[in-house]
Amino acid sequence: MPKNSIKSPSDSAVKTEETIINKVKDPIEAAIEPAEEKKTRFPRLKRFNEKREANSLKYSKFNHFIMIIFPIFICCMAEINHSKYISSFGKLITERPTVFVFDLIITTIVFIFLLGIFKKGWLTILVHSIIFMALSTTELFKYGTNGNHLILSDMKLVKSVKSLTSFAYIKITPQLILHFVIAIAFIYLAFYFNPKINATPLRRVTMSCACVLPMAALIVLPSFYKPVYNVFKLDTTDATNAFKLNEKFDKNHFLAFLVQTASESYANRLVVPESYSEEYIQQIMNIPVDTNEDFNGGKKPNVIVIMSESYADFRVFDQLKVDDKYYKYFDRASAEGKSGTAITPTYASWTVRSEFELLFGLPVRGINTPNMPQRELAEREQPALAQYYKSWGYNTIYVHPFQSGFYSRAKIYGYFGFEKMIYHDDQEGTTDFTVPVDHFGTYVDDSSVFNQILYEIKESDRPIYLHTTTMQNHQPYNQGDDPDDEFGNYLTWIQHTNEGLNNFLSELKKIDEPTLVFFVGDHFPSLRGETSVYNQLGLTGENCSPLYQQKYFFWSNYDADYSYVPKKEISFFYIPYVILNIIDAPHDAFIEKMNGFMETAPVYSTEYNNDIPRNDELDILTIDRVVLEEFSPSPIPPEELSTHN
After folding, report:
1. pLDDT for 39
2. Quick one: pLDDT band at residue 304, thresholds 50, 70, 90?
3. How far apart are CA 7 and CA 312, in angstroms?
4. Kind of pairing, strands 302-308 and 338-343?
5. Using CA atoms, how far apart are residues 528 and 519, in angstroms rounded to an integer?
6. Which residues, in sequence order, are CB contacts of 15 under 8 Å at separation 6+?
7. Tell me, what's the pLDDT at 643?
8. How many alpha carbons fall within 13 Å on the CB side of residue 245?
9. What is the model's pLDDT at position 531?
10. How big is the CA angle at 85 (ends 84 and 89), to the nearest 5 degrees?
11. Quick check: helix, strand or coil at residue 516?
């Protein structure tokens, strides 16, 4: 008989431990808890991902096809999306086939670059689709809002996108939804079949770098991009105004336009002239200075500069037959004071160009007409006109009934010599206004701004220099009896500004303080792209000069000397010197020099007239004062000036 084996408790324990260890790879885990099969979380998702992984190999040829066809697909979708109509895209292919080939090449390079970064085909397709569809949709909304096309430098305003949405006409159409549905469907297709590349990190880095080099050369190397643009027949005409830029877009379409204007923008970057030096500035400034100015015996008037947002006189276009009633009180103020025409450096947007010229008395052309000149400034005290008034004992004030962060005004304008800055932020629900704030349309009523000015005059125990950039007449113009009557609504708002202006000037007449008012619009308004009154007028890059001519007036509640107001057109940046001449303010060599330029170069703007040659002295003085060392005479006290560097 076989002997019965006797198992001791210790033997059983050993076998139990062996069983656990065999079932679990990690003995430590076995010691912590009994071995159990782990339940898979989201089993369906796991099976789906396993299916996707299998698809990568099982459908390798189809995956290759997906990655080959995608650049063509997304290039076409971007062009169709912004143009809204297949017919417009058809014209690109049939009338400008070389441009379309250029677009495809650029799109392919971008795709390969992203693929080198992400490796996974579906992720690359997702990111690429988001970028191109976002850009084309932004182009769609921008042109539909103000008739201007998207350029890459517009991306500088990405931080202010929340503010920009209050300006824009954003309309989600069935076509737009369809375009996004198609793009999403392609992304899902790629996600399901899961194309990917088998490449080492080094090879992928090499792929991306190989794409970066030609793209960088397209932007920064004229010896490379000029023949390339020539081969593909891109329009490289200098776009010196918004209408010429739009005409270039019509020829280059979306993607080629973005790339070519990026090259143009880089070529137009600010470069320090070789002749710039302290000795050269001193040579320019070596002129006789009239030192007889004493504010007409010492009585300093208040100086109020009103730059009215989008205020423009459309009566310049006879065919529109605009009724004089809309401009009734502007005409009355002009008759009581003195009127003229100033050449604005911008049209439809980029208010800060006009603001720069009025605040500094310098041409934006001197720093190559950037869209946002304040971005070019050195981060230091700046010799803006407010610094002069401050040195003369004025209380200097800046008023803007909008967000202080838009265009970085609060941060940058603090260097301009303003002792007080007043903003109103509807989005944040905060205000610096000390008078009741009313709205007309979307933005703060101009009358509220006028009331704030009256308050500042009455409260200050010193004469004031005040600059305001208003907001009331900014687009959108879809509020009124007929939301679709954009131009009619605009004129109604202009009439409302006129009524507020009349009340403001009437109140000034009651104040026993000499006050000089200068009033001008910053630019003609932004109006919708395809249906705007500008299209009805048939305006082009060759006949759009009236849109850069802004009527202005000087008005005072005392016997001001208007003999200094020019009878001819002058650029915006000369207006501050006209004001200084009217109030008989002291001159330094710089002010005297600018008065001389007003006689010899009254208009200095490429937007208005590209045939006007460069003025080296004006350019160098502009760069010197706001970008470089400020060797020219400065209103900033020496102790502050010495800390610039």
Report:
1. 66
2. very high
3. 105
4. unpaired
5. 26
6. none
7. 54
8. 19
9. 72
10. 105
11. strand
Strand (E) positions, 504-614? Answer: 515-521, 549-556, 570-571
CA-to-CA distance for 361 and 357, rounded, in angstroms? 5
Give every CB contact of residue 66 below 8 A, 6+ residues apart in sequence. 121, 125, 189, 190, 193, 195
Q: Which two tokens stand for residue 218?
A: 């397209």
H-helix or E-strand spanning residue 616? helix 616-626
- What is residue 107's three-state secondary structure? helix
One-letter identity of residue 635: P
Cis-peptide, bond into residue 301, ω within 30° of zero: no
For residues 211 and 113, the answer to whether their CB atoms sit within 8 Å is yes
Which alpha helices (DSSP H) does 59-173 contain, by range? Answer: 60-83, 86-95, 97-118, 121-146, 161-164
Angle between helices 486-510 and 328-336 (to 10 degrees): 40
Among 75-84, 322-331, 382-391, name the one with the lowest average pLDDT: 75-84
- Output the pLDDT for position 85: 75
What are the two backbone dihedrals, phi and then psi, of residue 395, each rounded to the nearest 5 degrees?
-90, 120
Distance between CA 69 and CA 57 in Å, rounded? 19
Q: Which residues pair with 586 in a beta bridge?
A: none
Output the DSSP codes for 458-504.
HH-SS-EEEEEE--TTPSP---SSSTT-HHHHHHHHHHHHHHHHHHH
Cα→Cα distances 339→516, 552, 562, 563, Å? 13, 6, 10, 11
Give the range among 282-296, 381-395, 521-535 with minimum mean pLDDT.
Answer: 521-535
Handedness of CA 562, 565, 568, 572 (dihedral sign): negative
Q: Does residue 645 have a pLDDT over 80? A: no
CA atoms within 13 A on the CB side of 302: 30
- For residues 605 and 378, the answer to whether their CB atoms sit within 8 Å is no
Distance, in Å, from the CA atom of 355 to the CA atom of 307, rounded to the nearest integer, reads 8
Specify whether the backbone of 297 is left (phi greater than 0), alpha (psi in -120 to 50) or beta. left
Beta bridge partners of 118: none
Total Cβ atoms within 10 A of residue 620: 22
Which pair of tokens denotes residue 121?
């085909």
